[in-house]
Amino acid sequence: MKKKIGCLHAHYSNIEYIQNAITSDEFELIHFVDPGLMSRITTDNNFDEAKAKNKVIEQIEWISQANVDAILITCTNYIAMLEEDRLKTSIPIIKIDEPFFNYVWNITEPQILLFTNPATVEGTMRRLNELAIAHDKLISNIETRVIENTFELIMQGRKEQYVEEVSKYIKGVLASEKSKKISVAQLSMVKPADKVERELNVKIGNPLNPLVTYFDNLLLN
pTM score, two decimals? Predict the structure, then answer.
């Protein structure tokens, strides 16, 4: 019997990434999208963190009632705001950042972690540090950078322009800092990262590939 996975996204563009990556007939993906929460977090000064956390809880509990076997959260900001001890459901929750963090921890060279959404950086790095401590990992060689004035492009549906701007930035970093490894921290950045990989024959880390490995391992167990 297929496992139903409820997928919570912060933007519609992430559906394509997950749908194309998790292709096994063993899984049925059901997508839930709420771009409004991220919009309010970044633009509404009166929408505080407590309200945002309440909204994430509401979303997860709504999805849990849709007859799913597990919930995949693809937005790192949603993950950072999730207070699991408040949930009234015991459905397993898969967080896209955890397999990605494991990938990041295993890089020994200095590395740059790129973001386009500045509101995501603090929560992501807090989780990265907390989980690193829990797993006895050293992460002192990680630098974060935000690619300014790009996240609004994806929120406006201007995907092609977003891909061009992000890929151009990545190429600039690769040219100027050749000794450092680069990873993109958000699912929306996978397409531009893939573009640069193909054009320059380089390796750029992203959250999607470790997630695919995670689901492949689920099939083996």
Answer: 0.87
User: Edge-to-edge strand order for the sheet containing 93-95?
Assistant: 27-33, 3-9, 70-73, 93-95
CA distance 89 to 70: 11
DSSP 48: -
CB 120 within 8 A of CB 76: yes
Sheet order of strands, 142-146 included: 142-146, 111-115, 181-184
Domains with residue ranges and CATH for the chain: 3-95+209-220 (3.40.50.1860), 98-207 (3.40.50.2300)
> Do 109 and 181 contact (CB within 8 A), yes or no?
yes
Cβ neighbours for 171, distance < 8 A, ≥ 6 positions apart: 196, 199, 200
- The beta-carbon contacts of 201-204 under 8 Å, at least 24 apart in sequence, are 202/174, 204/170
Residue type, 2: K
Amino acid at 112: I
Q: How confident is the model over 141-174, as pLDDT tens digits?
A: 899 999 999 998 988 889 999 999 999 999 999 9
Of 73, 67, 70, 62, the closest CA to residue 100 belongs to 73
Strand (E) or helix (H) holding 35: helix 35-43
